[in-house]
Amino acid sequence: MDRNHTALILDGSLGHGCVALLALSGPRSGDLMVAESGEPQRSHLERIATLLPSEASRAELSAIVVGVGPGSYTGIRTASAAAAGVAAALNLPIIAIPSDRALYAAAKEVGGEAVVLPLGTREVLVIREAGSEVAAHADAPASADLARVSSHLPHAFANLASAALSEALTAAARGEAPQRSEIQLRYPSPPRGVDGRGV
Amino acid sequence: MSRARLILAVESSCDESAVALVREGGEVVAERVASQSTLHAATGGVIPEVAAREHHLWVPRLLKEVLNSAEGEPHAREIDAVAVTTGPGLIGSLLVGAGVAAAWAWGRGLPIVPTNHLEGHFRAAWLHDAVSVLATPQLPAIGLIVSGGHTLIVHVRADGTSERLGGTIDDAAGEAFDKIARLLGLPYPGGAALSALAATATSRAVGDRLPVARTDGEYDVSFSGVKTAAARMALAAAGVPSGAPGRAAALQATLRERPVPPEAAATIAAAAEAAIVTALLERVEVALLAHPGTGLVVGGGVAANGPLRAGLAAVTAKHQRLLSIPPVRWCTDNAAMIGAAAHAALKEQRVTLQDPARGLTVSASWPFGAAAAG
Ligand SMILES: [Zn+2]
Question: Chains A, B: CB contacts under 8 A, how many?
Fold first, then answer.
């Protein structure tokens, strides 16, 4: 009998963990079975909490969906590190999704036109339909409510990844080994040097 | 027959990414280290965001390399637990190693051991490879950990519990070496270059002139006085009119324009090295005398320093104590030492195996011997 398939969705663009399990087969196919997307501003930066679903059946995992930014520098890196670890342990394909596209889609769901993420104390990342840019705090437009964006985020990732997920499932059914590419993160800006300039 | 426990260890606390497979008893089955030092040479120091981005590239790569290597692959399915450095260190960098390690452990259904980087440096002396088994250090011991980020002296009891005796109250020994090296125009990280330059000095008498500041604690050291004195000597040698040295950046700009002549630079390097090494040796000797029967275990990148090694050998020989210094590759940051520290903490029942799904906390400052943060 065929086993059930699920995908693990991981993103840290909001600065905390967004974790979801998406059913890819069986009667609940397309449903989010476990979804946790923490409160924005309540940073989990010092804790790898909520990144690993305790209830998940590891054996059912067939793919990892990871948000590759742009977003919180530490957040996207931590979620991506977790994605790389699970993928390496279980030899799973990684599906990279731009976090800003998922955030924008989630904002649309809640009637917003832009998502404004704080990056440190002076700058923000402004995400709109046309793309994302770093702006000064004072120049930022009104943001969609981040708590509501956060709760819609797992669903947005599931939608954006659906085509790639069915491809991955088909490839797996044909017995093809997953592509083992490295995760390329999209940081909002280059790191700052000691002189405040990009390095 | 039960085989010895096998741990996969991950280290990413500062500027080295590293992964290793370590057997209980200290055998290093496989290991890989990627150093960022050439990258940080361009900026003259470690920039946390740059370091974290490099760890994100290298930790997953090294993990796969270790598990697929000729020496690691046959044992990849025997791994019993995953150890990862969760402090002290740079938060952004620690999170990368912790994220990869916890997630890999979760994927394999293995427990995780959050491990202290400083205890790693101490336990590096217990490491060996399959062909060379060195004399195993014994507890109780005095531990001297000297690196670019840390300088501390600890007393580790027979049961593995420990007390911090003292350490630097300002710069780490390696940091002092690097800062003085920069004054003399040597590239980052300058510790080894400073020591090489010092070896060429023709006059060593000048060593007496560099002060090591007095501290309240009998085991504490302060290196700010050496740094200031070296700066003053450098300015004088460069022919800069006298006056107190200004801020570090201004001082360096001045010395870039009027570099210290090579012969004087060698003399200053020798004086600075002698002052730093002497300060460490004095504190270590006090610690050994106050703790009869202890051996001396040394760790950290500065343990590669020639005069320090020679001095430690002399002090331990004088008091008939066992000296243990790991080979240089295990003095500098590596993952094998994290595996060794995790094995020790498990054996001494100072930690328990954790479920990675419960989460891991990383900590910028986690004292030697303290319990891991929740
Ligand atoms: Zn270290």
Answer: 131
